[in-house]
Amino acid sequence: MILVVSISTLLFFMLRVTGDPALVLAGDLSTDEDLARIRSFYGLDKPLIIQYILFIWQALRLNFGKSLVSFEDAMGLVLEKMPATVELALAAILLNLVVALLVGAWLGYRPQRIDRRIGLFGVLVSQGIPGFVIGLILIQVFAVHLKVLPSIGNQGLHSLILPSITLASFMLPRVIRLTAANVDEAMREDYVRTARASGATSRIVLFRHVLPNTLVGTLALIGVQFGFLLSGSLITETLFAWPGVGLQLIEAVRALDFPVVQATVAVVAVLVFVVQAVVDALIPLVDPRLRSRRV
Amino acid sequence: MKGSKALIALVAVMALLAAACGGDEAEAPATTAAPATTAAPATTEAPAEETTATTEAMEEETTATTEAMEEETTATTEAMEEETTTTTEAPAEPITVSVGLGNMPPSGMPYLGAGSPGQYVWSNIFDGLTRIGPDGAPAPWLAESWSVAADNMTWTFNLRPGITFSNGEPLNAAAVEANFAVILSEEGRATYSANANNYSYVDSVTAVDDTTVQIVTSAANALLPSAISIAYILPPAYFAEVGPEGFARQPVGTGPYVVSEWGDDKIVLQAWEGSWRGKPGVDTVEYVNLPDPAARVQALQSGQINVAQSPSPDVAQSLTDDGFTVYSATRGQVLAVAFITKHGGPLADVRVRQALNYAVDKEAIRVALTGGLSPSGGLYPPVGVNGHDPNRMVYPYDPDKALQLLAEAGYADGFDMEAEMTLGSFPADAEIYDAMAGYLSEIGVNVTITPIDFRGAWLPYFLGTDGADWNGQAFNYSWGTAPLFDAIRPFNFYQCGWRNAWYCDEEAVPLIEAVNTTFDQEERNKVLHQLLDHTAANPPSLMLTENFELWAHDGLVGFGVFAFNAPFDGVSYGG
Questions:
Q1: In chain A, whose CA is at the least distance from the CA of B462?
Q2: Which residue in A90, A252, B164, B239 is deepest, having the highest Cβ count within 10 Å?
């Protein structure tokens, strides 16, 4: 709740600096009478501090008012879109986990080999490519030329492939690099030497001993970067017309639709908090050492 | 050990996901190719006025657009003419057209906006008493005729008999009265101000009998029939039953389409044969929210949509090369820079204002920065607007004349000026303003362009709210005629009486007043042209290029956009 109030307070004052919603609603034909009528109707004629107190009182009850554009309940609009964004974000996280662990393991297992060095250099370079460029390339190849995958909207799992790869690409290179570094470090640990001495094959050493330990760092990074991933969803959802909160937020900001912007940010803030908490809870499950420490 | 199991489980989930994603044709996107053998739709019951008007629109656009556009428009015109005479045949298979829009309408409630993008969709579902035709004049629509009393403030509109809404409610005078009662209430004027402000001088609307409506205004205004074209008539009983929110999700009108889905990201319309406008040629129209222009073009190229709104002018040629039709039409708006003269300074001298207009090569800007797609370089009123005259003078590029005028005005060495501009509102506007500044620097006028925010600065400065005012000597203000599509509209701001007047031409004031209050159209246009002549000699702004609609589609016949109406009832894939 403190989180929602803090974020909402910050946003309340920041949004009011960007412009007067009454002017936007009234348009360039408006008279003073029109402006007064609109301000009175939306409570914008009250002193700012009163507006703020009323806003916080309503925000505490998760009531952000009605959209200034569509006049529908702002929170309802956001919650309606949230599943699509969560679906996309989860797919991107899964992709990150799987690809980062596999590629990171390959790169970090014998990092001194020339092919791994080239691979790591490629990952480094790819970190500098903006996510939207990757998205545009994917659309051009798979939707325009090959015509095998859709690039707009959410029409089932087919539609999820290109946007989830695009969104995953926002953080994939850095997760791969972290995993590779962790694998490299783990390979020099005592327990690996012990496993090798007891006759374990390279594959067993990697998959049974090294990767589970590496998973902790990867999970932690993904948790920390989840907010960043959601900011990537603004671009991804716009590019692929994915019907989530990112696309909605961009349109709400453009229209100065305060209630929808405030409701979106509050919900996203809570979501980021929840994901952090889930990751914190998952890490001890993955790493028995942390579990025993807590006990 | 448990960690490795978790890892294996994750991999398994991804594998399942990948398997689920692979090769399921049934889940492929709904991309509808144009049936090659589809017969022309039945339009024989459509009102004669509409057919004529639409055909004229196509002809009008033909004169205004580039050569490629002309060919397309001519083809469209022919198709439209053909449709009016073709005997009805059952279509071979239902036609679905998917349209990618840059923005979606704000709501299914059509009073929550005016112009783009709402009207693109609303014009297929709803009707007003009038509809602005392709020539910018109000045409009979739900009202078949109208007249104004001697006081010039009491109007009588006669409705077409026998029209019903798609839910079965009758369209009658009582319905019209009920609609205006909602719009003109205190709450309506606040909530629906974006629409209602265009006819705020309407005092009362009364049903005289079943098909006669009386509208009384608080001031004489000859443009009432144009202004109320965007006041769509909704079924009052249904509206009262579901309220504005319910109506927004399931709108009902008298137009040729009914709404089967209204979402923030997707709208689906189905043809309704019972409409007074006749059975439309396209059975299903889908509107998809595609904010990114590149994504819209890619969706069109990949066959996921059939029509793309506002592709970048840069890709127009490549789309044409790929076999798509690129369509441009007027938006009734000319990009311009307004001169602020209320504080005096060089711009208060008419010779300086003329010099600045002579100094800029508008045609070169049009060709270089809009790909030649802008219909004209600075011609006002543009095509499709009442008062348009293709022979009206546009200041030619003549830097020598500009230098001579500056010298005569005492500014042979030029001067510095600041222009406050919002950037990114129109295609390539920043580049156009930069080019303008470049041309002006050649005659010694050094323009500093200060970018400002539309909502935070431009709008308060323009309205002068709480003492806000312009800081420079010029600002960007397009000569926009929408939603009236009449040349007089921007003059109502460019005048001494405006609430934060930045320019005052006392000689123009009586002419503006005369145009606003002359009800005989021929007489009115005579005065309008006097005003335009006067303004040409006394330019209050620097005209640049015309803003325009740009669309691309995969071969539709009869597709046209005028006054922000993008009706699909006359559209087909030919046959």
A1: A28
A2: A252
Cβ contact B21–A286 (<8 Å): no
CA-nearest residue of chain B to A77? B264
CB B337 within 8 A of CB B435: no
The CA distance from A16 to A224, in Å, is 30
B83, amino acid identity: E
- pLDDT digit of tens for each residue in chain B (575 aa)? 344 444 343 344 343 333 333 333 333 333 333 333 223 333 333 343 333 333 343 333 333 333 433 344 333 334 434 443 444 455 468 899 999 998 889 889 999 888 888 999 999 999 999 999 888 889 999 999 999 999 999 999 999 999 999 999 999 999 999 999 999 998 888 888 888 888 989 999 999 999 999 999 999 999 999 999 999 999 999 999 999 889 998 999 999 999 999 988 899 999 999 999 998 989 999 999 988 888 899 999 999 999 999 998 889 999 999 999 999 888 899 999 999 999 999 999 999 999 999 999 999 999 999 888 888 888 999 988 999 999 998 999 999 999 999 999 999 999 999 999 998 777 788 899 999 999 999 999 999 999 998 877 898 899 888 888 999 999 999 999 988 899 999 998 888 988 889 999 999 999 999 999 999 989 999 999 999 999 999 999 999 999 888 999 999 999 999 889 999 988 988 76
Least CB-CB distance to B24: which of A34, A144, A158?
Answer: A158
Contacts of A32 (CB under 8 A, 6+ apart): B499
Q: CB–CB of B4 and A207 under 8 A? A: yes
Residue among B13, B21, B465 minimizing CB distance to A157 = B21
B15 touches A at CB < 8 Å: no
Whole-angstrom CA distances from B262 to A38, A292, B122, B164, B247 are 27, 54, 12, 22, 10
Say if residue A274 is exposed, middle or buried (CB neighbours under 10 Å; 0-12, 13-18, 19+). Answer: exposed
Question: Is the sign of the CA dihedral B277, B281, B283, B286 positive or negative?
Answer: negative
Angle at A291 between CA A285 and CA B2, to 5 degrees: 35
| Bond preceding residue B451 cis, omega within 30 of 0 | no
CA distance linking residue A83 with residue A89, whole number of Å: 10
With CB atoms and an 8 Å threshold, state whether A241 touches B265: yes
DSSP-assigned states of every residue in B148-187 = E-TTSSEEEEEEPTT-B-TTS-B--HHHHHHHHHHHTSHH
Distant-in-sequence, close-in-space partners of B486: CB < 8 Å, separation ≥ 6: B136, B223, B226, B385, B386, B387
A70: nearest CB among B14, B100, B107 = B107
Calculate ∠ Cα B311-B317-B321, nearest 5°: 115
Closest CA to A158 of A172, A167, A148, A168: A148
d(CA B217, CA B152): 9
CA end-to-end span of chain A, whole Å? Answer: 29
Q: What's the ipTM? A: 0.75
Shortest Cα–Cα distance, B334 to chain A (Å): 17
User: From the CA of A2, how many Å to the nearest CA of chain B?
Assistant: 30
β partners of residue B416: B446
Give residues with Cβ within 8 angstroms of B330, minimum separation 6.
B61, B64, B375, B382, B383, B384, B385, B546, B548, B549, B562
